[in-house]
Amino acid sequence: MKVHSCIHPLPCTPSTGILLSGGLTEAKLAANTRKLYSLTLNSSNYAPFHYKDQKFSRSSSSDFSTMAIGSNVSEDTDDMFDDLLRTHGKVVYKRNDQKPASEEIDDDAESLSFAMAVAKVASDVKAGDIKVLFVKPLVYWTRFFIIATAFSRPQIDAIGTRVRDMAEEQYGRVASGDSKPNSWTLLDFGDVVVHLFLPPQREYYNLEEFYGNAASIELPFENQQQLRGPTGY
C-alpha cells in the first residue's frame, strides 16, 4: 500500500504548503487507497486537504512537520508509514503558542493594514484583478492572500520589487518565497502571502476557487485593470 500525498495547486513548501501542526487537531484518514480522500481536521483554523494514491517523503523543521511529494522514497519508508497508520489510525497535534483573542484581533488588523498597502502598490504598478482574501479561518499558516495578475515577466518583476521595497522601508519586513520563470512569483511575509501570476497561470492555479470560502476584502482604490495588459510593459 502506498502512502497518500497531498494535492494542492501550489508547491508543498512552508509558505504555501501542506503542513500538519498547531491547534488541538485530529486528522483521520480513510482506509481505501484507490479513492480521492479528504483529510478531516476538527478545527476551525484548518482547511480540508485532498489526498490520493502517491508516495511522499516527510521532513521536519523546528516547529512543524511537512509533507512533501518525493520520487525517491524507499519501500521501507512506505512500510513504516503504513504500520503507523494501521497501528494508530489518527494523529493528534497540540499547539502551545495560541494568543489571547484580543491579541489575535490586533494582529489581524495589523496584517490587514499591511495587506492593503501591498495591494495598493500592486495597483500602482498596473496589476490587474487584485484580490485580497482573508484565509485565516481556512488555513493556519497565514492570514491574508493577495492575488494579482501581471501581463508580462518584466511587470511581475516590477511589482515584486516595488512590494519588497515598500515592505522593508515602511514596515521593516522582508519576504521569502520563490518564482517560476516567466509565470508566477510568490512573496511570503508570514501573515500575508502575495501571488503574482501571468494570466494563463492565474487561470490554471485558480486560487480564488480553491479558497472559495475566504472572505474577499473590498479595496478602497480603483481596481479596473482586469483583462487587458497595461501600457509600458
Automatic annotation (TrEMBL):
Which NCBIfam families is this protein grouped with? rsfS_iojap_ybeB (TIGR00090)
Q: Report the domain of life of the source organism.
A: Eukaryota
Q: Which family does it belong to?
A: Belongs to the Iojap/RsfS family.
GO terms assigned for molecular function:
ribosomal large subunit binding
An annotated GO cellular component: chloroplast
Q: Which GO terms describe its biological process?
A: negative regulation of ribosome biogenesis; negative regulation of translation
Q: In its UniProt entry, what is this protein called?
A: Protein Iojap, chloroplastic
What InterPro entries does the record tag this protein with?
Answer: Iojap/RsfS/C7orf30 (IPR004394), NT_sf (IPR043519)
Kindly state the subunit structure of this protein: Interacts with chloroplast ribosomal protein uL14c (rpl14).
Quote the subcellular location field of this record: Plastid, Chloroplast
* UniProt keyword annotations, A-Z: Chloroplast, Plastid, Transit peptide
